[in-house]
Backbone:
């Protein structure tokens, strides 16, 4: 209990500190000053490859950053950072000592609450597949490697306005123009962090947010510009003593930038990487209830009995109170099953979804949330085409419904 209270106090202090230190965190997540120690050359690639900074968006829409600071197997020093989610959940970060092995990194955030985060390194070393487990729930993320600022005087990410509006480009625009839309991050000459957000494209004009990090005596900041756009090129600003231009790569995943100040005979270069969109929650709104876009239905193995394997797939129905519901059974590995439970709006309550680690046996699947005293049970029909469900919270009224396979 003391540990949980300490962690809660720590997170509140961290959140308060970040609000004071940087009031704009809409695209990235709060971080302290960072120093990444280069991994030993003796380490194998599938361990050393974790070193550095990684960024992504959990499938519930929450931004996240992982900084792997120091690797000394079997231990690893990391910073786990998260962005705000909704009005009541602020962003923050914690510094942890995790465990590392070939291609795998594990952080036990809170053993009492069962919070564990696991990351798997891709074969090319450019992606992490993350899994966040909290008691009986689970979320996924794909994280991309980020450029690391080698200067100890430079911050890793840059401030942005609290409101960023990325307007989807018109379908009539060519990909050489529409491809600029979105958020881009890089480091000028390897020492000065920068972010570019292309908010609105209306040729020949383009609205962008240009942001820069703190370095030496230069304070961090941002500015919104009305620039010029043509196929494959953006001119963010072109003034007497300042020019910032970007060209788009053929695959649309990189920008090559050039920063010029003639009065100082200065020219800087940068390669910008496209960032995951942060202005929208990655939900699929097709169908009666919301679902994550990263659904992974893994066919059950042949050795699993038919009255268990038949749960695999997508089921939809209506509870007897009129609330729509969807069940997606993604993976079955008895006695466990990973399933997404989704619900539609009802009265004044909104819609949503949650990924559970449920318990499965012959003809029965149980999803539970001990903290909320919630139990959802599904029983398989003899023909395997319907599920009879029951939903009960805290010993209250039990709702029932029939789910049909889709």
Residues:
């Amino acid at each position: 209990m003391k540990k949980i209270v300490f962690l809660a106090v720590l997170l509140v202090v961290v959140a308060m500190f970040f609000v004071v230190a940087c009031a704009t965190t809409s695209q990235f997540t709060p971080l302290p000053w960072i120093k990444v120690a280069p991994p030993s050359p003796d380490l194998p690639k599938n361990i050393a490859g974790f070193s550095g900074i990684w960024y992504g968006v959990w499938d519930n829409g929450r931004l996240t950053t992982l900084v792997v600071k120091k690797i000394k197997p079997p231990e690893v020093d990391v910073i786990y950072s998260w962005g705000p989610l909704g009005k009541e959940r602020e962003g923050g970060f914690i510094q942890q000592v995790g465990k590392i092995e070939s291609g795998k990194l594990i952080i036990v955030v809170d053993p009492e609450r069962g919070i564990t985060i696991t990351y798997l390194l891709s074969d090319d070393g450019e992606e992490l597949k993350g899994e966040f487990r909290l008691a009986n729930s689970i979320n996924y993320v794909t994280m991309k490697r980020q450029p690391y600022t080698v200067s100890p005087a430079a911050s890793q990410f840059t401030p942005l306005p609290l409101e960023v509006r990325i307007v989807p480009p018109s379908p009539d625009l060519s990909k050489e123009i529409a491809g600029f839309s979105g958020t881009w991050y890089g480091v000028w000459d390897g020492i000065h962090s920068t972010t570019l957000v292309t908010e609105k494209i209306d040729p020949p004009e383009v609205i962008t947010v240009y942001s820069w990090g703190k370095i030496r005596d230069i304070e961090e900041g941002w500015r919104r510009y009305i620039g010029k756009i043509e196929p494959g090129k953006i001119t963010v600003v072109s003034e007497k003593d300042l020019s910032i231009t970007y060209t788009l790569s053929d695959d649309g995943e990189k920008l090559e930038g050039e920063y010029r100040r003639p009065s100082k005979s200065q020219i800087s270069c940068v390669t910008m990487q496209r960032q995951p969109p942060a202005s929208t929650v990655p939900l699929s709104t097709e169908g009666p209830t919301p679902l994550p876009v990263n659904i992974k239905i893994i066919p059950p193995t042949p050795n699993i009995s038919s009255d268990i394997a038949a749960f695999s797939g997508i089921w939809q129905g209506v509870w007897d109170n009129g609330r729509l519901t969807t069940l997606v059974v993604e993976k079955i590995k008895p006695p466990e099953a990973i399933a997404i439970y989704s619900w539609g709006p009802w009265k004044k309550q909104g819609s949503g979804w949650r990924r559970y680690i449920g318990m499965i046996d012959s003809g029965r699947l149980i999803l539970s949330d001990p903290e909320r005293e919630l139990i959802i049970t599904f029983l398989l029909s003899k023909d395997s085409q319907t599920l009879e469900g029951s939903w009960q919270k805290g010993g209250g009224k039990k709702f029932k419904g029939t789910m049909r396979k889709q």
Observations:
- The longest helix spans residues 2-21.
- The chain is about 10% helix and 50% strand.
- The chain has three domains: 2-146, 175-274, 283-405.
- Residues 1-26, 149-156, 278-286 have pLDDT under 50 and may be disordered.
